[in-house]
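[READ THE FOLD]
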Amino acid sequence: MTMKLTPTPAIALIAFAAAVSLSAQTAKKTATAADDSHAVDKYMLDETTKAVDDVRWQQILGDIATVEKIVYTGLPDIHAKQTELGPQPMILYAYTFVPKSMDRTKKHPLIVFLHGGVHGSTLTGGPDNDGRLIRELVEQGYAVISPEYRGSSGYGMPYERAMDYGAREDDDALGARGWMLARYTFLDAKRVGLVGWSHGGMISLMNVLQHPDGYACAFAGVPVSDLAERMMYSTKKYRAEMAESIGVDVDDDRDAYLKRSPVYYAAQLNRPLMIDADTTDETVHIVEIKHLVAALDAAHKQYKLHIYEAAPGGHFFNRIDTPLAVESRRDVYAFLKEYLKP
């Protein structure tokens, strides 16, 4: 199923009203299940924000791309209650962007764009700057799909709590790739690249390391790389959420966390890879990147690495609009161009 996103004020108002109505229904269910007014407010706000931002996507890319929101399915939610019907495929969402100038009689490359934040979302604004980043990719001749992998915000409590860190969320990205190639036969399965920052950088790494046949290259910006190490500096709340999702605390089973981390699979790299990081990143500490680099080096792997010293913007340093960010992204785009040939 696909839904074209339209910018007209009337439809925007309808979308907003529908979102409020849907959010109210979700909130009622949430209140019954959790009896937590703060949770109700959070999910209402997330869903309403998402509905309004969906209209914004058409406004900022509709001049150069066909913008749609699609619905596909993935592996069952491991956290869902079992019924007599057994595990059911999880319904997932993704945004697709196809350049209007694309000659559909020829083959073209595809980018799988992974948003940041385990509970983040593909949004037009904010420091993640997804709107600008995706527009830049479309302007260079790439079709783009951005999956709202399980755990993303904006779709209610069950969707967000379906998070499967370093596991089925990675399959959601692979599934988005497959959906796009099946839908648009003019896209070249041999020229598919991965682009992601932060948690999206981690999913980019996990896909290129575990499913190399599906991708020609991958870029990972400030990527979560070692989940076990991450627990050593994370907040108690974050650590508790990981323990609930994974089923065990890191102190009781460190290997369970490593197996959900790119560092564990570094020796499997056999595709071109570029990594960017910043020494003063307070969200993904540089120690994680160093562990990944050490693992790649120990396996004698080739890759491109740019570690920036105290770059302005920290975790968001090359996603924002500073001169350094623009220059850094030029390097990223040059890397993609070398292997995807738009």
